[in-house]
Design a protein that fits this description.
alpha/beta, 4 helices, 20% strand
Length: 210
C-alpha cells in the first residue's frame, strides 16, 4: 500500500474531522476525485450540506478533482438559487401555487451558469463561497471567506468579496509545465516515489520523474 487508502472515509486514524468525501457523497451530480478531503469537526462526512440549491430538476453538476483540500464551512451555491432577472420583480411567486403558478418562468428564462468545476490540487479556505458555474483551475488557492463569482486561473491565489487575483503562484512557463505534467494523474506508486519533488518547486526535477 502506498499512502492513504482512497476508499477509507477517515484516513487519519483518531481524527475523524478529515474525510475523503468521495466515499460519502451520494448525489450523482456531485463528482469528487480521489484523495480530496473535507475538514470539519462537526460532521466531515456530510459534505453535501454545503452544496446549496442543488435541485435535481436543474441538472447542474459540482465536479471537484483529485487531491483537493476543502476547509470547514465552504459553500457551493448552485444554479437552483437563481431567480428570474428580466422582469420587474425577482420574487418566485410560482413556487407557492394557488393561482400563482401562472408566473412560472419558461425554459431558458432563469439564469443558468452551467456546472461548477474545481480542478485538481486546489485548496479552498475556511467559509469560502463558490457561486454557480465557476471554474477553478488546477493548483489554485481560494482564501478564507472569499466569494468566487468568476473563473480562477490555474495556480492563482484569489481572495476577497468578490474574489480577485492576489498573485500567481509560479511563472507562466512553470504553470504550463505543471499542467502538462499533471502529477495527480500518475499512479500511486509513482506519486509516492516522487513526493519530495511534488512538494518542492523544481520544475525540471518534476518533469524528469520516473
Amino acid at each position: 500500500m502506498y499512502g492513504a487508502d482512497p476508499k477509507d472515509k477517515h484516513p487519519m486514524k483518531g481524527f475523524p474531522q478529515i474525510c475523503f468525501i468521495r466515499n460519502t457523497v451520494s448525489n450523482p451530480n456531485i463528482i469528487i476525485g480521489d484523495y480530496t478531503y473535507y475538514d470539519d469537526p462537526e460532521d466531515s462526512e456530510d459534505f453535501e450540506r454545503n452544496v446549496l440549491y442543488h435541485f435535481p430538476f436543474i441538472g447542474d453538476r459540482l465536479i471537484i478533482g483529485k487531491f483537493c483540500a476543502l476547509a470547514r464551512g465552504i459553500r457551493f451555491i448552485m444554479n437552483g438559487a437563481n431567480h428570474k432577472l428580466d422582469g420587474f420583480s425577482t420574487y418566485p411567486f410560482q413556487i407557492f401555487g394557488n393561482g400563482w403558478e401562472k408566473a412560472t418562468p419558461q425554459t431558458g428564462e432563469l439564469p443558468y451558469k452551467g456546472d461548477t468545476v474545481i480542478g485538481n490540487d486546489v485548496w479552498i479556505g475556511y467559509e469560502a463561497i463558490m457561486m454557480p458555474g465557476v471554474e477553478v483551475g488546477d493548483g489554485a488557492v481560494i482564501a478564507a471567506k472569499s466569494v468566487v463569482v468568476g473563473d480562477v486561473s490555474p495556480y492563482t491565489i484569489v481572495g476577497g468579496n468578490p474574489a480577485k487575483p492576489i498573485r500567481q503562484r509560479f511563472e507562466d512557463d512553470v504553470i504550463q509545465a505543471l499542467l502538462e505534467v499533471a502529477w495527480w494523474n500518475w499512479d500511486l506508486e509513482k506519486i509516492t516515489r516522487n513526493l519530495e519533488k511534488i512538494v518542492a518547486a523544481d520544475i525540471e526535477a518534476l518533469r524528469n520523474c520516473e
